[in-house]
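Retro notes (design track)

What went well: tokenization of the new backbones is finally stable.
What didn't: we kept losing track of which sequence belonged to which structure.
Fix going forward: every design gets posted as structure first, then sequence, in one message. First example under the new rule, 103 residues:
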């Protein structure tokens, strides 16, 4: 009815959008409808940023210029499946090379 408001709830499962995300960290949701009397299309888009897991970094020994420094990286996989082909890259000011680590 005119001026009426209705709320519709939808659940999007990871399996439904998993193959479409790739390296992106966002989903674009679009709702669209047509006004029956006029044929006018009404649409609204919303970009939803996906939360990435937090990383905890800890130095395991004092950091000394010119020497290797062991670092512990801890994170939790929030997905309902195992991670495969995952790499962890450490880089920063003064680091001469990127050191990828396959997880």
């Amino acid at each position: 009815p005119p001026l009426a408001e209705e709320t519709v709830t939808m659940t999007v499962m990871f399996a439904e959008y998993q193959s479409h995300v790739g390296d992106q960290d966002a989903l674009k949701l679009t709702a669209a409808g047509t006004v029956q009397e006029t044929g006018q299309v009404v649409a609204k888009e919303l970009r939803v940023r996906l939360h990435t897991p937090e990383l905890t970094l800890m130095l395991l020994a004092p950091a000394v210029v010119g020497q290797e420094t062991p670092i512990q990286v801890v994170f939790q996989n929030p997905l309902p499946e195992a991670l495969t082909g995952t790499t962890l890259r450490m880089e920063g000011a003064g680091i001469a090379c990127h050191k990828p680590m396959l997880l």
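Added context from the reviewer: The chain is about 10% helix and 30% strand.
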